[in-house]
Amino acid sequence: MIVFISNNRKKHRYFSILSDSFTLNTKVKKLNIDFNPAYYYRYKKQISHIINESLNHKYKEIDLKYKQNTIFKNLYKFYIKAITPFIASWSIKQILKADAIAIWNGQRFPENLIMGIANHFNKKTVYFEVGFFPNTTVIDPKGVNYKNSLPRNIDFYKNYPIKENTFPKKLNKRNHLIKRRLEYVQLPEKYIFVPFQTSFDTQIVYNSPWIKSMPELFNIIEKIAVSTKTKFIFKEHPHERDFTYEELHKRAESCSYIQFANANETDELIKNAEAVITINSTVGLEAMLMNKRVIVLGNAFYALDKITKKASNEKELEEIVKNIDKWKPETELMKRFLSFLINEYLVKGTWTNPNTEHVKAAEKRIKEILNDTYYDHFGKK
Q1: Confidence of residue 314 (pLDDT cuts 50, 70, 90)
Q2: In order of start, what are the domains of the chain with their CATH numbers?
Q3: Mean pLDDT computed over 63-82
Q4: Which long-range contacts (CB under 8 A, 24 or more apart) does 363-367 make?
Q5: Within 13 Å, how many C-alpha atoms sit on residue 43's CB side?
Q6: Which tens digits make up the pLDDT trace of 342-353?
Q7: pTM of the model
């Protein structure tokens, strides 16, 4: 039996649609807080390292988000620690009855706790996430984003056929969720595009070793812009809820090398750029579709040799920017990678509108995971 565990109403609805349509034996459970001493104390010692790792990840997120509010931060940590035994014992009960556990994303607390426990009991795991391109979904046995199962050796993709007719014609549309400062700007002839990511997204909290906030990213780019006399265009993430970055806008207005272009379409900003600098955003993949140079600053599954550049500190980034005209990605290899991503890895269809085709594709992928044939797409495990 595969158990889908949901943590919000929308994902519960999606999992229920899949469950009702699948031929597989499935159940959909809403994440619950239900302390069962028999389960918790029996397995507490076995899973203590999993609990500690999950809590430490959550504490790291809390420290970043509430660093100016010590009292609230400490109360929040106390609350998280207090409810953890309840979540753990409920999870153990569900996991022991299941053959596999399916969950959305799985990087944040408490989902990472649940999946850690599932792995401890040698249960198969299925991770769902929004696909990188329109009308696609990620369904992966290992994880999402940097933790996904895609091979990290670029040579793996060198013989995969290029199927450009399957490449998306449009990028994901990102509508602004809240009112923010919008400026449409006339783009300079030459510039590097730097898209912001949401402040406390798991991609920044867990997969960005040396840049922990968008102001920090801005500070680094600002220094490099002045020292190299290179023009940069920033765009805030349309889903940003926590910051408006007014101070950064003021600084940009006083620097001739930096502009914000919040009203310009992302595809326009990519298309006209010399290169794209990203921590680990999907924009990096979208830039690859347009054969652009991509410079990655964080942990990203697409930060592969020959098709991107990776900067692990400010000095490395400055050197790459200084020599931006001296390198280009191996376009054919990049297209092979994208072709594999689109035709083998991503599942067609979207969770927001799961039509019959998507449901069938999702069940096929989950059967591959359950039957240990998933890695046949990769030629080897």
Answers
A1: very high
A2: 2-130+349-378 (no CATH), 154-339 (3.40.50.2000)
A3: 94
A4: 363/18, 363/21, 363/22, 363/23, 363/24, 365/139, 366/2, 366/22, 366/24, 366/100, 366/102, 366/126, 366/139, 367/24
A5: 21
A6: 999 999 999 999
A7: 0.95
